[in-house]
Specification:
The chain is α+β, with helices and mostly antiparallel strands. The protein is 44% helix and 13% strand. The protein contains five helices and two strands, in the order αααββαα. It has helices at residues 12-20, 28-38, 47-59, 83-92, 103-106, and strands at residues 63-69, 75-81. The chain has a two-stranded antiparallel ribbon. A hairpin with a 5-residue loop joins strand 1 (63-69) and strand 2 (75-81). It starts with 11 loop residues before the first helix and ends with a helix.
């Protein structure tokens, strides 16, 4: 894949944000840096896109926000994931389909 910037599909950003928060709280710049680095610079999330998504997730009670200090000792709002983020990460991290107790469900 070339290094061209890719447009995010609707709804994808929320999942990427939640994935970034699986390991702990991050501020906005750290979230965008994680997404950029993990995508080999293919996905660039602008502030004008990130913060509305964070507010949307917060309003849905999928995130909580606390004020804290960034690495530069600047005031930054840290985002804390909830059970939803963990559940999403489990789905995204799946390496094989689940084994059903009912064999007839597997062929569906």
């Amino acid at each position: 894949m070339d290094k061209a910037k890719l447009d995010l599909f609707r709804g994808t950003l929320d999942v990427l944000i939640l994935k970034a928060l699986v390991w702990g709280p991050l501020h906005g710049y750290a979230i965008t840096s994680f997404i950029r680095m993990q995508s080999d610079d293919a996905l660039l999330v602008e502030e004008g896109t990130l913060y509305p998504a964070l507010w949307r997730l917060e309003s849905k009670k999928l995130l909580e926000a606390d004020w804290g200090l960034s690495e530069n000792n600047r005031k930054a709002k840290f985002r804390i994931w909830e059970a939803y983020a963990t559940a999403v990460a489990k789905v995204l991290g799946a390496t094989q389909p689940p084994v059903s107790a009912n064999p007839s469900e597997q062929s569906a």
